[in-house]
Amino acid sequence: MQKRTFLSMLVAGAVSVPLSSHAAWAPSGEVSVIVAYKAGSGTDVGARLLASEAEKFVGRPLVVNNVPGADGKIGWTQLSRAKPDGRTIGFINLPTFTTLAVLPHSPLSTSKIVPICNHLKETGVVVVRADSKWKTLKDLVAEAKKNPNLRASTNGVKASNHIAAQLLARSAGFNYKAIPYGGTADQLLALRQGEVQFSCAKIGDVLKLSTGRSPVFRILGVFDTKRDPSLKNVPTLKELGYYGKWYGSARALVAPAGTPPEIINFYVNAFRRTLTDKANIAAHERAGLSIDFLDNKQLAALIKEQEEFSREVTKIF
Predict the structure, then answer these.
(1) Burial class (CB within 10 angstroms; exposed 0-12, middle 13-18, buried 19+) of 13
(2) Torsion-angle region of 268 (φ positive above 0: left; ψ -120 to 50: alpha; else: beta)
(3) What is the pLDDT of residues 273-314, one digit of tens each?
(4) To which CATH superfamily is domain 123-231 assigned?
């Protein structure tokens, strides 16, 4: 009798169901993934690979939306202003995002985003064309000391690869001319076409173009304290007596500020499953991409660390 009474009350709406008994949050439609660089860029390639692999764990299509321009500021501003309902997430690049965020009057701020997870960690490298007369980084540095008009392409003013060029130049004691482009893809095209003499990028951006029978680029140095397994014959900047620490970029997923915790938790778990999936790991290895999963709390600590680094590194420009 009591059971019938309870059911009748439930149907009539007189009994409220506790929130804990509700189904867990999941997106109700396709998810927009904002990439602040053009299609074909390093960030875009990694984002599309992750989006395709994550769909089975998210349960809805993840659609990469390229919003390039202003060294990433346009896309990241759009991301931070999106409705915090879980239907829009996006990639940020560290330290580019934090470096731009600490500049005066910047539209960007770490307070306008919520961490989800880190996707990739990419080590910086110094590259020239494969047919360049400079066979070693020592050769390039010696030339740069004699000729301060050497040109280096960057992925934007004070963006990650510009910072790398500055770290190299300052530690090696030479001057050069930095030529900004809209992103890594355009930056490397400029090097390929001979518009500049050298560049700094990430291993994943240039590895495939620096090996094989007809390489396009030659990698002269790695921003690390030990040699990379995929580049055993390429010295680190540290062993050459230049910049003595690891430097590179992290590519991470975030949501607009105000996104509820249950939505963030859903994505953390979905991407954790994706980035530990054997098929996905193999797909990343084939693409030359190094997975470095960090959950939302670990990513929050990394963003804070990178913000402090950015405040210091802006002093070298």
Answers:
(1) exposed
(2) alpha
(3) 999 999 999 999 888 888 999 999 999 999 999 999 999 998
(4) Periplasmic binding protein-like II (3.40.190.10)
d(CA 13, CA 4): 14
Q: Which residues contact 2 (CB under 8 A, 6 or more apart)?
A: none
CA 207, chain centre distance (Å): 17
DSSP calls for 36-95: SS-TTSHHHHHHHHHHHHHHHHHSS-EEEEE---GGGHHHHHHHHTS-SSSSEEEEEEET
What residue ranges of the chain are covered by domains with CATH 3.40.190.150? 29-122+248-316
Spatial CA neighbour of 270 closest among 249, 288, 296, 290: 296
Q: How many CB atoms lie within 10 A of CB 177?
A: 11
* Topology of the domain covering 29-122+248-316: D-Maltodextrin-Binding Protein; domain 2 (3.40.190)
Question: What is the band of 23 on the pLDDT scale with cuts at 50, 70, 90?
Answer: low
Q: What's CA 67's distance to the chain center, in Å?
A: 15
Q: What value does the mean pLDDT of the chain take?
A: 91
The pTM score is 0.84
pLDDT (tens digit per residue) in 143-190: 999 999 999 999 999 999 999 999 999 999 999 999 999 889 899 999
Task: Kindly report, as residue ranges, where domains of CATH 3.40.190.10 are found in the chain.
Answer: 123-231
